[in-house]
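retry 2 of 3: previous attempt timed out while embedding adenosine-5'-diphosphate. Reduced batch size to 1 and resubmitted. Inputs unchanged:
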Amino acid sequence: MPIDSSALVKMFNGIAEALEADKERLCALDGVIGDADHGIAMALGFAAARDALASLDVAATSPTQIFNTAAKSFLNAVGASSGPLYATAMMRAGAAMKEKSTLAAADIAGMIEAMARGIQDRGKAEIGEKTMVDAWAPAAAAAAEAKAAGKDATAILSAALSAARDGAEATKSMIAGKGRSSRLGERALGHIDPGAASAVTILEAMAKALTS
Ligand code: ADP
Ligand code: MG
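retry 2 succeeded.
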């Protein structure tokens, strides 16, 4: 089943709901190695995106415009470092689906790859620096691999999610090279990165919304 603008609005609603539900856990994770606001920032940002999308005429809105609207409202709502990172991710996802009204499996992989690339271009973090990149980059690689193998959107999303989970878990044994927690040095060891944790929540909500 092809994925259209209305499916993407549903996806953003699902992400907003999932982050609202996960807000306290994400703040607690950020409380250990950061400033305890990550859950608030993410829930606020995606609630703003959801509200902005609710005022659109979806039938007259392209997938690119959906992502651009979400990006702008997210950036305006979020003052934390996740604001520009996810705004860039969403702008890139929008650009990757330019001229399309429905998304096929390959476009879903392209969306995840574009988001990961945007986050890396914007924040300049490499894999292993204990950031959201440690979830997004492996998710993008898994999505690309599933796409190359001709898998459907459900399989692509599930491969991306599983790679993101492993990547987020791996941040426990990392010292941060970017962001607030980089000041902690070895004291960050043993703790999962909040940005990597929320990336998993986002991909989970994406998979749920786009495959049901
Ligand atoms: P802040 O650190 O400004 O309070 P948040 O709490 O919303 O922002 O987000 C913290 C998360 O942002 C970190 O857990 C990490 O995953 C991510 N992050 C920080 N800096 C970068 C960066 N340069 N590149 C990618 N992700 C980053
Ligand atoms: Mg924070």
